[in-house]
Structures
1.
Amino acid sequence: MTAKKGKAIIDRDYAISEIDPRLYGGFIEHMGRCVYGGIYDPQHAQADENGFRTDVAALVKDLNVPVIRYPGGNFVSGFRWEDSVGPKAERPVRMDAAWKSIETNEVGLHEFTDWADRIGSEVMMAVNLGTRGVEAAAQLMEYCNVAGGTALSELRRSHGRQEPYAYKVWCLGNEMDGPWQICNKSAEEYGTLARETAKVLKRIDPSVQLVACGSSSLKLPTFPEWDATVLDLCYDEVDYLSVHMYIDNAENDLDNFLVKGISMNRYIDSIVAACDFIRAKKRSGKTIMLSFDEWNVVPSTWKTNNAEPWIIGPALCEGEYSMADAVVFGNMLISLIKRSDRIKIGCLAQLVNVFGPIMTIPGAEAWKQTVYYPYLHASMYGRGTAVPVQLHVPEISTKDFAGAPLADAVAVHDTDTGEVTIFTVNRSASLELELSYELRGFVSLEFCEHVALSHGEAHACNSPGHSDNIVPRIQNTYEVKNNQFTATLAPVSWNVLRLKPREAQAFVEEG
Ligand code: AHR
């Protein structure tokens, strides 16, 4: 295979930002088989005494997910939180109109938070601003975040939880711009409701951070006007604007799909521009940060069980992720890290079964999709300071993108250990890329490892019983001279290139 050549320059002086660990968050919704039949399955041989699958919990724990958004998603817009607390036997079985499913409330707020605690994740709570409003949101916060001495905080204590949950981040509804949302609203209606809800929530617990709903898709005609209008109404009361994006290959056009990360960068730039436009309009000294609290690739093979409504845990939005999907997914992670100056929270939607990196087979094993690995690598090695990678690589023109670079990359510098990790995707469907990296402004580095995810067939997937079809492999070791080395990147590949300070030299950070 003839390789195309390129150059990548990483200059520490141009560092982007400290990465907020919450960038590697996740999302678990009462939807499909994410909770029922996913993390929770009391009949399973590996279920713990609370009915949660220990094998699934272990896979999530390995991902080291700092924060998990809960309980929805579209589900939250019809959710009555009171149904999900108190003695299990007395909890009502409800019709969840968002997903036309049966919600038993077997897993509620206490059970979910205990599970999240066990795997070391914080809960990012969402309130219902669809069928409900300020009063229910305020009551939920009193139940969760107030120590005691009031009706609802004492009710929580009577349910067995003495200390407040003290959730730090709260979402003011979900995708309220979407016509599919229960009680979808105009930007003016939602912005006003978000402001009034925020005022009350911050009076109850001034320490919380609040997320207003931004655009849920760049395909909606209301984007980006929605974002500016909403923020104009609640700028002073909220801390974050949410952004959602799912990238798909609906057109079945591999070249075009592989470079679709570009649209995410443009989307982020536009939302940041909308935030800063309102900052300027208000002459405000405050900067709104982004909570990218739903992002993922939609696997080409995805299916949804619409045929069987009103059951518990229907198989919704499930599919096998291909090698190409993993590259686009890795590219989305690169986009998040590149804008870590403004994106402080990211939530992979979702963690289990529903567009999940982790899949479960009823009564049998849990298995890892291709996309599990870029997420794992980013969470493991993507903590520290983000540093841009200036790329000079060949370009390709596709249906939607003229002059798209064949690669995308970002570096992360761990200033505690001196290690540098460079995440790079080769977005070419057929060409190998020989990339010469040059690192400037770092101590003398040596090569640690090149971990790559690739496969000769872009559409190949992992599947039940064949979950080791595509797994990360250690590639070559490269000689580093003057902090320069050249790596060979396979077509359609996700690459993690790790360097560390030379052993001979004691690592001393110059402050
Ligand atoms: O993640 C699945 C769904 O996608 C969420 O419930 C919703 O917010 C989004 O449209």
Note: Residues 279 and 286 are 7 Å apart (CA to CA).
2.
Amino acid sequence: MCGIVGYIGNQTAKTVLLEGLRRLEYRGYDSAGMAVYDRDGFNVSKKSGRVANLAMEVGKRELEGSLGISHTRWATHGGVSDSNAHPHVSSDGKIVLVHNGVIENFGDMKRFLLTKGYTFESETDTEALSNLIAYHYEKEGRPTNGFSRFFMAVRKALRHVEGTYGIAALCVDCPEEMIGARKGSPLILGVGQDEFLLASDVSAIITHTSNVVYLNDDEIVSVTRDKFQISTSSELGVDAIIDTVNWKIEDSEKGDYPHFMLKEIFEQPAAIENAMRGRFSDDGSTANFGGWNLSPHELRQIDRILFTSCGTAWHACLVAEHLIERFARIPVEVEYASEFRYRNAPLDKNTLVFVITQSGETIDTLGALREAKRKGYRTLAISNVVGSTIAREADGGIYQHAGPEIGVASTKAFTSQLVIAAMVALYVGRLRDMSFASGVKMVEALKELPDKIGRVLKQNDHIKDIARRYAHYADFLFLGRQSMFPIALEGSLKLKEISYIHAEGYPAAEMKHGPIALISEDCPSVFFASNDEVFHKVISNIQEVKARKGKVILVHAESCDVPEGLVDDAIIFPDGHEAIIPILATVPVQLLSYHIAVERGCDVDKPRNLAKSVTVE
Ligand code: G6P
């Protein structure tokens, strides 16, 4: 979703901003723009399409300024066009602004500003805010306690905003100041050597500095060449904490891989190793989590868990439900965060609310977390991004340590969420009925995972070959039972998001209640099976598909006794404990979707319309 990069320092802003925007491309966007303070004023360039279009445009200009702001836009208010792209300059030419989020009351603002003589060139909500800042700057702004008139005007204008924002702004009269602010949309400040950067996430600034300030909601920062100062709507000048990011630059680069998605699929053994590192008890029978913030005694009082999330992370919640109910015997419910936050669901008072989120910034998941906190429930988060809003706001949490995930289609983050879900089931299970011996078995099984995933990855060529033969189909079904049902959902989501093939995931037996009508030689099915109590039922479901001339790819555990000649293609994963089977079954369908998308010529890492981090409702 939209991305912001701002720069003030000694380097040429245009170069720094373009590099930052390229590193934010993965978030998903449809146009890009920048404003550089050059000589006596703003030089603004905006282009729909890729950052490369913007680079061509600014490449033609002699821009030497070392102060600038830039943006990748994911359209919400107004179509994709050069004029709707950010930055937006106020109609009096004083203020230039980039903005993420949605200003819900922009209609009222606009009506008011029209009466004051301000004019509008775009259909965006952002332009209303740039004009509102200009209005306060002209009419009422005055320096206060060492804060500039520009700063005071931004602060005043933001008081009138209903909705969400992450912003970076410049003023034509202030060649030495950049202002950032956030409420609901992420914004961080990179603190470098003689330079500062504002950005939506760490990947845009990591080549400059690993020292960052994670701005909190309602904070506004004034950045000049030699210092920064943070304030809130109620207080001028508050303390800031500078954190150190422990990413390496290589983590956010493709290396020798053609796509981030493939790189991240192959990083899964390491990502899973990192999720488990140091988190098993010395006696090897249970898991430990440092940031859980809940004593064993408190945990024993919990008699229900609610998991809530969006997208792929929601599928991880469904696997968590299966594992926790199975191994810890606590009832679990799973809700879409976007539904939960507005549903006013009655929850039992001893409910623990758990959110899973790779980015830690998804607005619906954040809304659900805040709603649960408001009602007084204990909240925990599983998240991959250290310092993200959700990680900071939850009462406790577990970091995934999967490393940056750049491909829009989530892969290593998903499997590392499943590993943590299994460890949560183990930990809570051991506080309740799970025996020492069962705990040890589960720990051993988890430790074998990286190696077993490595064995699945060795089938890459075989899966690529299958993908080539199936890439022309327009429809797919993904079918699995029990813990394989969420994997069927995840497989169908992966395929549709990167290859634009219509795909549906269903519990295998539910197929008979509707989806079976789709089965024909033109609609292949991907089935999942492990050697468990429902294996023979799955085989019967496959027979039903074959009887209707449907092609079948079966993703199955090694020891499954699959009748000779039943399926058209098979991808085999190693046998293992019930807790790790969903993870092993996921990897083949990640590779299958990836190769099908590549075969169809799709832009795997930047699929159309999608955003990596969805920061609007
Ligand atoms: C977007 C991404 C998905 C992701 C979902 C939830 O839709 O494209 O890959 O699963 O958001 O994101 P989160 O960061 O909360 O896990």
Note: The chain has 18 helices and 24 strands.
3.
Amino acid sequence: MFKKILIANRGEIALRVMAACREMGIATVAVYSEADREALHTRGADESVFIGASEPAESYLNIGRIIEAARQTGAEAIHPGYGFLAENAEFAQACLDAGLTFIGPPPQAIRSFGNKTVARKLMIDGGVPVVPGMVEPDLDPVRVAAHAQKIGYPVLVKAAAGGGGKGMRIVHDPAELTAALTSASSEAAAAFGDGSVYLEKYIARPRHVEIQVLADAHGNIIHLFERECSIQRRHQKIIEETPSTALTPELRREMGETAVRAAAAAGYVNAGTVEFILDEDGRFYFLEANTRLQVEHPITEMITGIDIVRRQIRIAAGEKLDLKQEQVTARGHAIECRIYAEDPANDFFPSPGKILYLKEPVGPGIRNDCGIYEGYTVPVEYDPILSKLVVHAETRDDAIDRMKKALDEYVIVGIKTPNAFLYDVIDSKPFREGKTLTSFIPTYFPSWQPTLPDRETAALAFVADAMAGRRTTESAAAGPAEIPLPWQTLGHWRL
Ligand code: ADP
Ligand code: ADP
Ligand code: MG
């Protein structure tokens, strides 16, 4: 086993990986940028190496600096987390070239899945159903229009290099196609340095259901069931749960086996996720594969009892999977809410800034993978995820009740968070009934605004009063202009 691992990431996911290392007796090296001098991951690792300016290109995307940090500290392996370099085949290769173990799949598997059209071809060859559409990127409006006519409107323009919901346009009317191609392509070029786009049939009223797989370097591949990730804003997940209310045991088995086949077709090793779109008739199609740890991996950990990060590390160290498919069992129901610094009443606009007051929820079956602390300033430079709030309970109904309680007790003052919005979603009848399609938010919460009942106003007054007492010295130093009024920023909070 490795003695020392460098974590090439920041925030909550760096801390999540650090926790697994600590449990396994492995020393940790954090890397940090200028903006992250005071971040929790910087403070929490056994060693921390400064790698550059705040802009990601200068630090968390700087392959040379990260490899150098590993050399300098004697780390033997690098865990990339998610985002940044996690799905960068060049980085995985650079690790290997430097004699370091990349805790993830081989560069070739990252390349195969990293491009959506390359992956679609590979899946078709491997007998995995894909969404009807093009298998080569194309920007020629005439040829693309002919394809669109063939597969039928509505169609979805997608970036071949896409990720995080970027570079996607739904087109209902042929007259809108050319403009959609141009705007999706330029968004993709800016985000991924690759403006290639292609078309898929837009599946009506779908769900996003993905399968977690684990593959070792000895040819053993298993799956850890599904995650239902249909509650999304801007094509990005914000609430995930497992099991999915839409799967029968037969469909679960079929999708699991298909995901294993997809991983085998790509020569996959380590933890990965095969994403499917599931239509109303129970037909499912390959969407893409994420060749890394997924943001929502904890819900799978909760129901299976399998620690996915520990498994990643053990697989990377060359261990054989000591689990057979039939030994993997699931218990209960788990839900995750992603807590971002963003304003749900203003199109989920990012809301970085200083955290003036923080109270994390605790209790049976509650797990908060958290990357912030009171007094911390959420930087503007990075993905504004603050924490992943996860609950596990015996049944789905119990898990819903538990999540409501946890959201209720979660107080973050100083920046905007989606907590009150998430509470209303979890508390809604359509959610309780499992009507979780990807259209859920536009259908049921098209223009959500917070409500502040009287008892909450009383709670706000209480917090404001408590904070005023605590902040006298701090506010004198910071200046009053920096501190917003608590009732402008407080999320869902009840007495
Ligand atoms: P997941 O696929 O794990 O559910 P997201 O799609 O929300 O999660 O992406 C997780 C993180 O990775 C986000 O910070 C997102 O901005 C980033 N990300 C996702 N795909 C890419 C990509 N292709 N390139 C760069 N960053 C990405
Ligand atoms: P990304 O790499 O950005 O995560 P995905 O291909 O995984 O892109 O798609 C993200 C989301 O967009 C899906 O979860 C789903 O909600 C929606 N989506 C993608 N493709 C389709 C499609 N063909 N039909 C309907 N919805 C789709
Ligand atoms: Mg995706």
Note: DSSP finds 18 helices and 22 strands in the chain.
4.
Amino acid sequence: MNTMINIALPKGRLGEKVYALLESVGYGCEAMKESSRKLIFEDEQNGVRYFWVKPSDVAIYVEHGAADVGVVGKDILLEQQSDVYELLDLKFGVCKMAVAGKRDFHPNPAKVLKVATKFPHIASRYYASLSQEIEIIKLNGSIELAPILGMSDVIVDIVETGTTLKENDLVVLQDIVPISARFIANKASFKFKNEQIVCMQNRICAHLPD
Ligand code: PRP
């Protein structure tokens, strides 16, 4: 019997890249090519069912078993501390998590550092590892504005090309961790659909650059 593998893909450019990769290794789904607002697509012959989900929700679907596997940025896995298996580093969506601020920023040891970020857990863990007390200002986007407007001292954010920082006169002050897309699996699915998931993992792996 052909057991279906449920795959959560992040909506957007990363997801399309991942779908193209999966299609090239035998997990195509013709219906995915029709442009529509549908969120679920199934290809019985290839044994796959795809879900388009918000990128920050991929690991939640996988952790809860609604999807067996998925592709998600390491930034989201670190922020959500998702309880999933991380099977492959797909080596795309490459960027880094970093502390950034004004070029002339000098920390004042007498004051608590104000950190603006979309990633409060990553920022808290990073500064805890330095035994540094901080105040987190949680934002949802345009993080670079915070130090420019004097709302925070620094930001903890994704840096990909560095263009956003540059165009806003900010610089990387410290690197925290490299980030890239990861192929993840639900822990129970990995046990019960092991053959299919490992087969998919191996086929993807064979297609990745060294
Ligand atoms: C992300 C991130 C930076 C930018 C980094 O923002 O928060 O602002 O991309 O990319 P770069 O180094 O290539 O310039 P995103 O585009 O997700 O928008 P947001 O501000 O709404 O979070």
Note: The radius of gyration is 20 Å.
